[in-house]
Amino acid sequence: MTPFSDHSEFAACQPNRDELRQRLATAGLRATTQRILILESLVVLPGHPTAEQVHRQVAATEPTVSLGTVYKTLDSFVAAGLTKRVASAEGACRRYDSDCTAHHHLYCTDTKEIIDYSNPELDALIREFFASHGLGNFQPHSFSLHIAGSRTSS
User: Fold this and answer.
1) How far is CA 55 from CA 35, 60, 151, in A?
2) Domains of the chain
3) What H or E segment, with its residue span, contains residue 4?
4) Tell me, what's the pLDDT at 88?
5) Among 97, 102, 64, 69, which residue's Cα sits nearest to residue 83?
6) In the prediction, which pLDDT does 8 show?
7) Angle between the 33-44 and 67-79 helix axes, to the nearest 10 degrees?
8) DSSP for residue 68
9) Above 80 in pLDDT, residue 14?
10) What's the CA gap between 76 and 83, in Å, rounded?
11) Residue 113 — φ and ψ, nearest 5°?
């Protein structure tokens, strides 16, 4: 991943259904048609889609899938470690990230987009800070920053 990523490179490629089945199986989930369609939509939609956006994508192929099913399926994906839930700064909707690698999120308050950000130097600084300052009776295992701001012209 480059330091900045908006997931747009994923929208251009259609995931292999066998690969999606394998991802579900590895996560301990049965590869039902609905789960495959929901996972496929999550992977191909740009950015960090909402459940409603995933539902619209899935409904184009399978109109009988309800929004409730999409929410429940996405929650099961989060519980299985197949995806992550990402808070949006406005807090009004849940958004999902199919990229489970360690990275941070930059939230543009003007465009409402969430941009992935990865920087090993920043990660090292955060680890060093908590190693030297501690958190009382708490041991962090992972971390992700969510930084709100606005895009600049340069």
Assistant:
1) 12, 9, 29
2) 4-149 (1.10.10.10)
3) strand 4-5
4) 67
5) 97
6) 46
7) 80
8) H
9) no
10) 9
11) -85, 150
